[in-house]
């Protein structure tokens, strides 16, 4: 572990976990993959260097064989369904949403099924039946219909509901945020803010909450701040005895066995 003071609160919390003989489970999801890019290469390089399992949420309508070929050379990477085309169908006064109640449910579900089949075909060895709603939003009436399409789990952002119609494996730490004016493009969050969020999530788990902690990245949108935090966080936790980075498939199986 580094001596950087920014990480000190995390070091102290992990020391408490280690002293108690506890191990915190983490997992990693990156959104919006479409095709091979330099940013994707950097992402996969980090995952490989730190031997950290990674789930890549791929946009089915915009991807193709090129991404399949690129990921075939990567180890420890799984592929989830990131909606269909990542297009907003909500009116301007509402938050962006592709999987909302703004269209007929049959149309939305039809697209999701097409996305499922597309990625299952392109990534047969890496595909996991997980839906990642674009912008982490989905109309509640659609969730109960996902298992009929073949989905076995869903991943959004924030604390997972204790009772859901499909197993949830959510993310909780988003490395990207808005600037001080809350406008303009998203930027990497300050590192001390992210470390504070991590400590809060770990304290919650220490008290008995079973949910794994999910790291959320967006390789295509990262600035230098976001990349530096991601690399630093993996380095700080990769070989710590109080942290276990788990693949999504294992965590979903674990969750299903305890429900």
From TrEMBL:
Signal peptide: none annotated. CDD domains: CE4_u4 (cd10928). InterPro entries: CE4_u4-like, Glyco_hydro/deAcase_b/a-brl. Keywords: Plasmid. GO terms for biological process: carbohydrate metabolic process. Transmembrane segments: none annotated. This is Polysaccharide deacetylase. It comes from Rhizobium sullae (Rhizobium hedysari). The lineage of its organism: Bacteria, Pseudomonadati, Pseudomonadota, Alphaproteobacteria, Hyphomicrobiales.
């Amino acid at each position: 572990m580094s001596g950087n003071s920014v990480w000190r609160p995390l070091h102290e919390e992990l020391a408490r976990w280690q002293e108690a003989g506890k191990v915190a489970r983490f997992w990693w999801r990156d959104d919006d993959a479409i095709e091979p890019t330099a940013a994707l290469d950097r992402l996969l390089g980090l995952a490989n260097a730190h031997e950290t399992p990674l789930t890549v949420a791929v946009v089915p309508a915009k991807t193709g064989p090129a991404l399949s070929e690129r990921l075939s050379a990567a180890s420890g990477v799984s592929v989830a369904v990131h909606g269909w085309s990542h297009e907003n169908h909500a009116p301007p006064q509402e938050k962006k949403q592709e999987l909302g109640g703004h269209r007929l449910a049959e149309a939305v579900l039809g697209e999701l099924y097409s996305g499922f089949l597309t990625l299952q075909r392109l990534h047969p060895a890496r595909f996991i039946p997980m839906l990642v709603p674009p912008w982490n939003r989905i109309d509640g009436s659609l969730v109960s219909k996902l298992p009929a399409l073949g989905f076995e789990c869903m991943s959004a952002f924030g604390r997972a509901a204790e009772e859901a119609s499909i197993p949830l494996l959510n993310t909780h730490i988003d490395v990207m945020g808005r600037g001080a004016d809350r406008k303009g493009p998203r930027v990497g969050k300050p590192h001390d803010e992210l470390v504070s969020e991590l400590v809060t999530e770990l304290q919650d788990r220490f008290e008995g909450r079973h949910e794994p902690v999910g790291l959320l990245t967006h390789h295509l949108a990262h600035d230098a701040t976001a990349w530096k935090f991601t690399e630093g966080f993996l380095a700080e936790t990769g070989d710590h005895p109080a942290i276990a980075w788990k693949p999504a498939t294992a965590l979903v199986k674990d969750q299903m066995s305890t429900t």
